[in-house]
Automatic annotation (TrEMBL):
It is found in: Cell projection, Growth cone; Cytoplasm, Perinuclear region. Residues 148-250 form the PH domain. Component of the exocyst complex involved in the docking of exocytic vesicles with fusion sites on the plasma membrane. It comes from Nothobranchius rachovii (bluefin notho). One of its GO terms (biological process) is Golgi to plasma membrane transport. Belongs to the EXO84 family. Residues 252-286, 664-685 are annotated as: Disordered. Keywords: Cell projection, Cytoplasm, Exocytosis, Protein transport, Transport. Its main location: other. InterPro entries: Cullin_repeat-like_dom_sf (IPR016159), Exo84 (IPR033961), Exo84_C (IPR032403), Exo84_C_1 (IPR042561), Exo84_C_2 (IPR042560), PH-like_dom_sf (IPR011993), PH_domain (IPR001849). One of its GO terms (cellular component) is exocyst. It comes from the Eukaryota. This is Exocyst complex component 8.
Amino acid sequence: MSETGNRLRKLLESPNFDPQNYVKQLSQQSDGDRDLQEHRQKIQTLADETAQNLKKNVYKNYRQFIETAKEISFLESEMYQLSHILTEQKSIMESITQALLSTDKDETSKEMQAAFPKETEDLKQRTLTSLLEKVEGAKNIMDTPGRHLVYNGDLVEFDVDNMSPIQKAHAFLMNDCLLIATWLPNRRGTVKYKYNALYDLESFAVVNVKDNPPMKDMFKILMFPDSRIFQVENSKVKKEWLEILDETKKKKASQDKHKKEEEVPTSPVRAEASNNPFDVDDDEPADAEESVDLSLEWIQELPEDLDVCIAQRDFEGAVDLLDKLNEYLKDQPATQTVKELKAKVDERVRQLTEVLVFELSPDRSLRGGPKATRRAVSQLIRLGQSTKACELFLKNRTAAVQTAIRQLRIEGATLLYIHKLCNIFFTSLLETAKEFETDFAGNTGCYSAFVVWSRSAMTMFVDAFSKQVFDSKESLSTAAECVKVAKEHCQQLTEIGLDQTFTLQSLLVKDVKAALLSYKDIIIEATKHRNSEEMWRRMNLMTPEALTKLKDEMRSCGISFQQYTGDDCWVNLSYTIVAFTKQMMSFLEEGLKLYFPELHMVLLESLREIILVAVQHVDYSLRCEQDPEKKAFVLLNATFLHDTVLPVVERRFEEGVGKPAKQLRDLRKSTRPVRINPESTTSLV
């Protein structure tokens, strides 16, 4: 078997092995199906052995595989570093070559201009004219004498706020102005661009934007109160733009200064020195300007550093830089240079404010709770915008509460949903109040805004609460438990000095009143229905367990019931009176859970109406019943109502409300049993 397997293995491993020919020969040489099955078994055995050997080799060389993978990873890292070094060296060599070429070019240009000044000037103007012919709407630019082209190139303009590309542009830098032209999508002949804007060199400042993806190879042009950001092809072109812009602006300023000096008339007469102490020297403003030192490195780089901080979302660093500048300029005179610097800084403050406002907008993620807004709020307060910070903070929390309530699933029992709703809302309100107290500790004027907001938030909560509890027609017991839960959670706010109990009650009073009146009508209808079927018979509860359960129910209501129970399972009261007692006591307990001071008379009058239905029924039965035994039984039920049930209702109401129930007391006195016939008959008057 082993020798056959070796021969088969050599055959399969040979380079000239042809599977189709091998199968054809094997079919011709085999005697039948059995030979093919045996050969198949041999090939399968060989395949299993090969797989086993391969697995053993993998396990044997497992550590070597790992070490090889590590070496490959190290080699990849070294190759990446080497590639980075070569790229940097190439960039350095290109910059050196460009610098040498530009130096030679400048020297050659100066020599040419010195040797042929008129020809050089004409060449510059012709070059500018030929370029401006490609710009639609730029014919009048060449009307200014002496204007010539200094530099030009393609740019891409980006949005200042969200750093997204806006349009392709082409810039023409001339010796006294900068022309921005946009690309035309539909070109007409030689015209490629369309006139966009023309800026005097004195009217704008150029700021380098540090490379921080996606802000790469960009510079900013500041024209108070606006700014524009442009991106160039690479870092070399960006450097050329910045250097040539700066050099051209300086050259223009120097030329203007010389012109002004030449225009000042010189008099041969020496001016006499004035002895007037009130004369003001014209050179004093210049001295005043020089008295403010703005040449410090951190001041020169301040606008650029602010841009970087805003881009990197380092809000604290940006505000620290602003505080440092304000502290430095606090006692300094407001010279022209200081005003220019403040104009640049104010633009950054506006951008920083917009970013912070966006951080607090409800469109942002609301996860993290109120603490997630602390960073943006604190920086807005430091910028002197506490009112805006307060407004945005509360709007953010409103959106968070709305989202939390909307995402709460309505499933299971209503009471379970209300527990979850109260837990989410009041916990969020408590956290918001604590965070507000932390963030606005030094701004007491904002506290009134928080109180107004808390009422609006409570309105939002009550809307969701009433929709689930009252609009869905839940039972009075369920509604009472839900209101009780809301009251208990509302008490938690008193820990921080915020009492919203009155707000909660005033918002719920309408729905609670409607629920009480609706349930009162249900009880009255049920009582009248039972009264219409009244037979004035004793109750038979059939089992001792049922009697024990009834005794426990009456005891829990505070009603003494022992003297009305007879032998076995009999009760010496009618079914109608017992059912009425249980239903009315349940209504009283649920009404006390729902009680608000505004609902005092509603609950009192509801109890009075319910009691009157039962009393009038007993009185009518006493007057109409002819059977002496039944009349005596009716009188027993009347006594139970008057002497047992009504005092308990009166006492329990006064305990729950804390006020005397005069209407209930008067009703009990007016329904006392009196004897109509001294021999046997009594009635209720």
